[in-house]
């Protein structure tokens, strides 16, 4: 049995169990920490420095080329060159984290200036007297005329101004949203200016509290999207909204309740009063976007799959029932099409794809695989119905990545598996599904048509212990990943023939989508400088395995990069930088959507992409 070790990442204090020999990059990905790897993990740039205070291995020659004596003494390592061989504690500094670099702190990272929508300014307003009977609101506006000339003021706000001016003894903080006076607050509250960026996923909602003065992340929390009780995917949510009188309202209430819970939790964590949260920015797929706004998504589910609204939305958060400052604003990222939403806009924004001369491909794999490819001159995108196989659905022993899920499969003399939480195996999650198929293809237990071969048909080099795991099943042969003696139920965890077919369908849909985008742009695999894997699943996937099954193009592995929750990062960027909001609008307007259902060549590509590759040029 292969050894597993506990790896704890600081400062989060997040622990995962990793198989011996796993890279630090992969273990960090499992802990949802995405590292910045400028040279793609080749060990040539020396940028992926981490500290290993517990369990530090000896330094390799390659590491010593980049580290000075002091760093060696402090057990600094290069993440891409370090493997897990003991229980370890690894400290990951912010400069080694992917998005901390990209998401600004003013002047650093990508050139996006910190410019939140809401600004606060402390002013001392001249008190009125018989000689100066200027109206209260005019008096306030006069004090901020350099920042907002002739600012608009809502009637709601006007009603509060006289009392608040006097309660604050004419020393007040003016809250501005561009050229609009949102409110005034007594005294100096400028230190307390916060916003929350949301990523509203079909499965998970993540909220991030940011200090709008610095752009810094202050607290994060997440919840399962409570709409999952109405179905796992967007189509079942839309059906619920269509088939039930109050369906849309119920779905909206659920998501708003989760948003409010998350806001309460992150404010509690950070000791921030909710009154001091002035903006919420949300990204999500087009259906999540519509449901949150209470806009019916019914036309997304039927041809020609039209969204009700594409452009960005700004409204009062209170109008949606979101509990922040009573005058706070809510923004929704613009969409691209019915099946490519603001989450993809967020990915393109965060990855800087619209600034690049180099051809990049971004892939976000979920029930739908959203793909975007292009350069600053032309960006195209599509959505493929990958199905839920990689999320564990329709797979005999499939499960989400929770304790008891096999997350990694390696075949040497026998099968080695890593189980999340070091529990006994109950099933397998998407990454292990890809590994299992890839490894069985590599050793010759599965052939390129996707057939699990009989023990006597399998490649002669297959180790005996592996061959013995091939057992008769309902549709031919199945493969025993973990015998019943090692599972809590006493039942073996199997990869069955039908599972291999489900993987073919899922990976075939994504790969065919990539082929269509390539045809559309007239490019080849070798023209793609980077494949960016976004989303939770993208964090964990093992790149060589994904190539092995033909899910990703056969390009050198160091050109395939993890970008983590890029949609959420895009939301953070847009929250703190109005320039990013403008860029998002441009991405939404200029990215061309390719409807695969309308392409005569898609079926053909899909049939071809169902096959498993015989061999790779870039293993
Ligand atoms: S040395 Fe470049 S990513 Fe590790």
Give a short summary of the structure.
The chain has 619 residues and is α/β, with parallel strands linked by helices. It has 18 helices and 27 strands.
Describe the protein.
The chain is an alpha/beta fold and 619 residues long. Among the domains are: 4-96, Beta-grasp domain (Ubiquitin-like (UB roll), Roll), CATH 3.10.20; 118-186, Ubiquitin-like (UB roll); 194-342, Domain of unknown function (DUF4445) (Nucleotidyltransferase, domain 5), CATH 3.30.420; 397-495, no CATH class. The strands form 6 sheets. The protein has a 6-stranded mixed β-sheet with strand order 12-11-10-13-15-14, sandwiched between helices. A hairpin with a 2-residue loop joins strand 8 (171-177) and strand 9 (180-186). Helix 10 packs across helix 17, helix 13 packs across helix 18 (602-609) and helix 16 (566-576) crosses helix 17. The longest helix has 25 residues, at 497-521. Bound molecules: FE2/S2 (inorganic) cluster. The site of FE2/S2 (inorganic) cluster has 12 residues, from loops.
